[in-house]
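As a warm-up, study this chain.
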Amino acid sequence: MLTARTIAVAALTGAAVLTVPTVAFAEPDPDPVSQDVQHQRDLADGKLDPDHLRHKSEKDAQEAAMGIDTTPGALFTTRTMVVGNTAYFAPADMSRAGAKAAAEANNLCAFGDHCLYYNSGGRGANFKRVDTNSTIRDYAGYKFPAGLAGGGQPVKNNAAAVHNASGHYTFGVFYNSGWKGDREWFSPGTGGNLDYVKNENASGKSFKSW
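Now compare it with the structure written out below.
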């Protein structure tokens, strides 16, 4: 059984490059169910699908080959990248050319967005929603936008990192659809690799923190 704990993430600001330790909360389902019920949920959400399990393994190998930090809960830093009149958040270790290309492909997180990244470290395609419109009961049918690694892939059970660029809304990522199961919470201004919901995200919820 998982126990509630905190995982370190980064507080992301508009500064050129800044990492400020903060916390995001990872917790087990507060309403646990029987093993049989959980099994049925997992079947319905594709957790036991052989293709899903194979894809997870392939993604892990790809990230290792890319040299991405895949540490569960690892924080990442960002810097701002202005394209047109919009300031985006780019991973600090991404080249300016790479950041510009990502921004032009609309795959970077802007202030007010909740973003799910295909790869760890805030890399790859980015499924983003404005904080007031990021509550989704089931990610089935949604896809990462084209332009970067993971583009065109399903969002459900396929996100490795989160960036909450909202100023006021906390964002939660859930293991099962319908906002059930284990979940990880990211407060405003935090971002990092997912822990035990990595590549197992089935739903997301936003609520105003203050």
